[in-house]
Design brief:
This protein is α+β, with helices and mostly antiparallel strands. Strands 3-1-14-9-10 form a 5-stranded mixed β-sheet, with no helix packed on it. A 5-stranded antiparallel β-sheet has the order 2-4-7-8-13, with no helix packed on it. The chain has a two-stranded antiparallel sheet with strand order 5-6. The longest helix is centred in the first third of the chain and has 22 residues. About 8% of the residues have low confidence.
Amino acid sequence: MDLSPSSHSHFILSFSFAFLILCRGVLGATFTFVNKCEYTVWPGILANAGSPTLQSTGFELPQDSSRIFTAPTGWSGRFWGRTGCSFDGSGSGSCGTGDCGSGEVECNGAGAAPPATLAEFTLGTGGQDFYDVSLVDGYNLPMLVEASGGSGMCATTGCVTDLNQICPSELRSGSGEACRSACEAFNKAEYCCSGAYNTPATCKPSMYSQMFKTACPRSYSYAYDDPTSTFTCSGADYTITFCPSTPR
C-alpha cells in the first residue's frame, strides 16, 4: 500500500467525504411538531413496513409547545394528531379522535382510527422526498406541513380550514369533533375506490371529496387525487403544525 504523504492526504479526504455522505444519509430529515391548538394534542407516528421506529410512536404535545424527531434517509410513514385524550398516571387511556387503539400514549405500531387528518412522508434514498396531507381517511383537526432548507418544489401543504364546522351531518363523527370520509360513512365501492372502482378511470371525485378539495385544495381528498396533492423536495427538514392560524 502506498503511504506517501500525498496518497495519505487523499485517503483522509476521501474518507472524510464518505463519512459526511454517510452522515447525511443516516440523518435524512428532522420533523418538528408544533401545537398551536387551544388544547393538548397527542401526535401519533406510524412507520411503514421496513422503516425503523422513530424516537416515539405517540406522545403528548401541550398547547404552544414543540418537539423534534430525526428520521433516516429512506424512512416512510405517517403522522397525525389525536384529540380529546385521557390518560391516567400509568399512561393508560384513549383518545376521542385519531385513537390508535393501543390503550396508552405510545401507539406501538398501530395507526389512527378514522376519521383523522394524516401527514404522509417518504424520504428519498438518493433523490426526492415525497409528502402529502391526506383527508382520504377523514379529518379531525387542521394541519400544515412546511419544508425548509431543501431544493425543488418544496411547497407548503395541508388543510388549515376547520372542516368540522362545515361537515355535512351524514359525515359528522360523534358530536362534531371530526368529519368522516364518504367511504367510512357509507362503505360503498364508488366512494372507497374499491372493486369495480379501483382505478383512476373508474373512481371519480364525489360531491363529498369535492367539498374537502374546495376547502383544502392541496390535500388528498380521495384515493386518486395525486396530481394536486403530492409534493416533492430534496434535502429538506419539515415542520408539522397542528391548528396553524394561517398558511405561510
